[in-house]
């Protein structure tokens, strides 16, 4: 992408309405634009990152055996009356009436709809286990939308739903998602801690929230200090292995949200307990037959008896993750994207657009990098070097390749790693070889 034609409306001033760094940086980098309170348009740079996060989430769900479908954003009130949640959900649900005065709603979550789809088609235990997921926009009329995409009203969620014939099967489905979540967050470059959590309005008895520690987090959390240096995926099993020993080992290291933590009965001595703030980026539940019973989602068991299915649901805040990543990875100059979700792999900075030799070398590097499958932000704009450096730091591209007439006279270009600031002067070919 040539930045001279890329729609990236960066801001020089710090927007005053943004209270936390991730929101400020997303606005300054021209990634999002608020269109109503808590509702955002995703501009090209932001949308690139959103798609990268979404793709990693998708790949890890697929690897865990979940199958992707897509349910609509608008739902009928009918189903929610069946589960009893139409009245319980309260003001967070955006209720809509269509022209025939039918009651509809913008889905805040999909337990009811997926249960309806399930019961329409699945009739036998032989068709289980089944895990279905989608990545879709949700709407919750949050009382206080804030912190940009972190607590939006419209937001992108991955939500998966598992169906099993018995509690043992449901436990295995839960453990698969538990492992899939650890793998997902690790790939994104985040350290997420699974914490014992309250099940809240979804119900059920087994639940974990996946929490990124950050001062700006909205949840109070507690964990054993061993979590600080834990490589959680070390010696992790494969998806098809028995996951129970791994699950037991990881969950034996204490971590709980403040709703679950009881200071009077803490299993961890004060000296080993970390008390911190955190961002909830994922939440998994096992809730048994809470929906299958009232909604009559039953299958025929091995002896022909009718069995209500055991269910679980598994959410990831895909759009919230973007804010969480930036909270965890930035400096005074801007965002530092982890490689896996960066909007571009390489930022190519032309220090003197219009200089024939510099333009020629840049065009050649640009073509070669793109041909090798790398995504390149080529700053070919007619701007001062200082402005180009500042913008490239701001948008956080992991590698910066700086090309100018002075270096070229000596046959070198400069390669900079955004995260460390480390710079190296190299011959053009050597720089290229390092990136490919
Ligand atoms: P919170 O406690 O932050 O309100 P929640 O517990 O209500 O979140 P869940 O119902 O568990 O949310 O939804 C699954 C995931 O969706 C959450 O873990 C979070 O990452 C994301 N999420 C929930 N609400 C929002 C929101 N308003 N904006 C962005 N992401 C959200
Ligand atoms: Mg909420
Ligand atoms: Mg919550
Ligand atoms: Mg939650």
Give the strand tally: 23
Distance between the termini: 18 Å
User: Biggest sheet, in brief?
Assistant: 9 strands, mixed
Distinct compounds present: adenosine-5'-triphosphate, magnesium ion
Radius of gyration: 24 Å
Q: Roughly what fraction of the amino acids lie in strands? A: 25-35%
Separate helix tally: 12
Molecular shape: globular
Q: Outline the low-pLDDT stretches.
A: none
Proportion in helices: 25-40%
Subunit structure: Homodimer.
Keywords: Aminoacyl-tRNA synthetase, ATP-binding, Cytoplasm, Ligase, Nucleotide-binding, Protein biosynthesis
Catalytic activity: tRNA(Pro) + L-proline + ATP = L-prolyl-tRNA(Pro) + AMP + diphosphate
GO molecular function: ATP binding; proline-tRNA ligase activity
Write the layout of secondary structure elements.
Elements lengths: L20 H8 L3 E5 L2 E4 L1 H20 L3 E2 L5 E3 H7 L1 H4 L5 E4 L5 E4 L4 H11 L8 E10 L14 E11 L2 H22 L3 E5 L9 E8 L5 E6 L19 H8 L3 E3 L15 E16 L9 E3 L5 E3 L1 E8 H11 L1 E2 L2 E2 L10 E5 L5 H16 L4 E4 L5 H11 L3 E5 L1 H5 L2 E6 L5 E5 H8 L1
Parallel strand pairs: 3-7, 19-20, 19-21
Antiparallel strand pairs: 1-2, 4-6, 5-6, 7-8, 8-16, 9-10, 10-13, 11-12, 11-13, 13-16, 14-15, 17-18, 21-22, 22-23
Bound molecules: adenosine-5'-triphosphate and magnesium ion (3 copies).
């Amino acid at each position: 992408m040539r930045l001279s034609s890329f729609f990236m409306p960066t801001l020089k001033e710090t927007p005053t309405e943004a209270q936390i760094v991730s929101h400020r940086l997303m606005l300054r980098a021209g990634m999002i634009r608020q269109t109503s309170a808590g509702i955002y348009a995703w501009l090209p740079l932001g949308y690139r990152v959103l798609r990268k996060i979404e793709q990693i989430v998708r790949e890890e769900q697929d690897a865990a055996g979940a199958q992707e479908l897509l349910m609509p954003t608008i739902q009928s009130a009918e189903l929610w009356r069946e589960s009893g949640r139409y009245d319980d959900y309260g003001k967070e649900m955006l209720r809509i009436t269509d022209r025939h005065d039918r009651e509809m709603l913008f889905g805040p979550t999909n337990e009811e709809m997926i249960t309806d789809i399930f019961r329409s088609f699945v009739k036998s235990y032989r068709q289980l286990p089944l895990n279905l997921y989608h990545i879709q926009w949700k709407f919750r009329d949050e009382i206080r939308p804030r912190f940009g995409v972190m607590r939006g009203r419209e937001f992108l969620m991955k939500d998966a739903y598992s169906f099993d014939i018995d509690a043992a099967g449901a436990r295995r489905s839960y453990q698969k998602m538990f492992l899939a979540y650890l793998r997902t967050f690790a790939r994104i470059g985040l350290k997420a801690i699974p914490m014992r959590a309250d099940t809240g309005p979804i119900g059920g008895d087994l639940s974990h929230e996946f929490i990124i520690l950050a001062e700006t987090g909205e949840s109070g959390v507690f964990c054993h200090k061993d979590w600080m240096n834990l490589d959680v995926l070390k010696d992790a099993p494969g998806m098809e292995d028995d996951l129970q020993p791994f699950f037991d080992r990881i969950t034996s290291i204490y971590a709980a949200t403040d709703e679950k933590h009881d200071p009077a009965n803490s299993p961890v001595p004060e000296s080993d307990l970390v008390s911190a703030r955190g961002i909830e980026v994922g939440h998994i539940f096992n809730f048994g037959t809470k929906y299958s019973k009232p909604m009559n989602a039953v299958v025929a068991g091995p002896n022909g008896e009718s069995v209500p299915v055991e269910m679980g649901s598994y959410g990831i805040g895909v759009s919230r993750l973007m804010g969480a990543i930036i909270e965890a990875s930035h400096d005074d100059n801007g965002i530092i994207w982890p490689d896996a979700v960066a909007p571009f792999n390489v930022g190519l900075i032309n220090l003197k657009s219009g200089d024939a030799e510099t333009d020629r070398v840049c065009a050649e590097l640009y073509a070669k990098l793109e041909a090798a499958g790398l995504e390149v932000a080529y700053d070919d704009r007619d701007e001062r070097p200082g402005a180009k450096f500042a913008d490239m730091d701001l948008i956080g591209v992991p590698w910066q390749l700086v090309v100018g007439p002075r270096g070229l006279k000596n046959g070198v270009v400069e390669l900079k790693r955004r995260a460390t600031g480390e710079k190296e002067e190299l011959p053009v070919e050597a720089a290229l070889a390092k990136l490919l």
